[in-house]
Write a structure and sequence with these properties.
Helix content is about 20%, strand content about 30%. It is built from 3 helices and 11 strands; from the N terminus they run H-H-E-E-E-E-E-E-E-E-E-E-E-H. It folds into 2 domains: about 150 residues, Uncharacterised protein YcnI-like PF07987, DUF1775 (Immunoglobulin-like); about 30 residues. The chain starts with 10 loop residues before the first helix and ends with a helix. A hairpin with a 7-residue loop joins strand 1 and strand 2. The longest helix is centred in the C-terminal third of the chain and has 29 residues. The protein is globular, with a radius of gyration of 39 Å. The protein has a 5-stranded antiparallel sheet with strand order 5-6-3-9-10, with no helix packed on it. Strands 1-2-7-4 form a 4-stranded antiparallel sheet, covered by helices on one side. Strands 8-11 form a two-stranded antiparallel sheet. It has about 230 residues and is an alpha+beta fold. This is YcnI family protein. Pfam families: DUF1775 (PF07987). Keywords: Membrane, Signal, Transmembrane, Transmembrane helix.
């Protein structure tokens, strides 16, 4: 998705990290619970849902549908034993829900629960509600969509609610464009005030050759004079 952070983070790992924080919640009431690693309004977050199996017949849960508040960005993790399908409004492009479906011979067994991680962009609000529809293998459906009771009491099938804070926001990841490689500069001709190379250059070489020639000539004259004297 455009503007998506990079994901700068693995969904499965974060889901495992949040498991410990739900130990108390799971024992307090076998309801659908929601948690997030970065519950900031208007920001991206990894939101994870804990869905228990409450079937008195021991029937496994085979489908979980989570209603989304028309979020602008959403992506799912790859979960063993489950497939995921996002429902998107064709007109606005907003994501309305996500449905996790168990593959054959899989699902949430009796006295068990499953974690469903989802990366989304949270709405700009004080809190967000995620109604959940839980479907069992025998066709039974449980709608976790009831609001809090007057006075703050909890209904029989409460919708999971995530409180949001005002910040701080996490910076978005930017991929810098590498600068263009500059072409090497080439001098067309040396300038008049250019300094000679450090190793002497052609001028010093010519002087050395001339000095050597004079030395050879001097040696030849000496040899000729010595022969005349003998």
């Amino acid at each position: 998705m455009a503007g998506h952070r990079a994901p700068a983070r693995a969904l499965s790992l974060a889901a495992l990290l949040t498991l410990g924080s739900w130990t108390v919640a799971a024992t307090a009431g076998a309801h659908v619970h929601v948690n997030a690693d970065h519950a900031v309004r208007g920001d991206y977050a990894l939101v994870t849902f804990q869905v228990p199996n409450e079937s008195e017949k021991g029937v496994p849960t085979t489908k979980v549908t989570i209603t989304l508040p028309n979020v602008a960005s959403a992506s799912t993790d790859v979960m063993a034993g489950w497939t995921a399908a996002l429902d998107r409004d064709p007109a606005s492009g907003a994501y309305r829900s996500v449905t996790f479906t168990a593959i054959p011979n899989a699902g949430i067994g009796a006295t068990q629960f499953e974690l469903f991680p989802l990366s989304i962009k949270l709405p700009d609000a004080d809190s967000v509600s995620f109604p959940v529809t839980q479907t069992y293998a025998d066709g039974t459906k449980v709608n976790w969509d009831q609001p809090p009771l007057p006075g703050g009491g909890e209904p029989e099938y409460p919708a999971p609610v995530l409180p949001l804070t005002a910040g701080p926001h996490e910076p978005e990841e930017h991929h810098a464009t590498p600068p263009a490689t500059a072409a090497p500069s080439v001098s067309a001709a040396p300038t008049a005030d250019a300094q000679p190379p450090a190793n002497g250059g052609p001028d010093n070489t010519a002087r050395a050759l001339a000095g050597g020639a004079l030395l050879v000539a001097a040696i030849g004259v000496g040899v000729a004079l010595a022969r005349r004297r003998t």
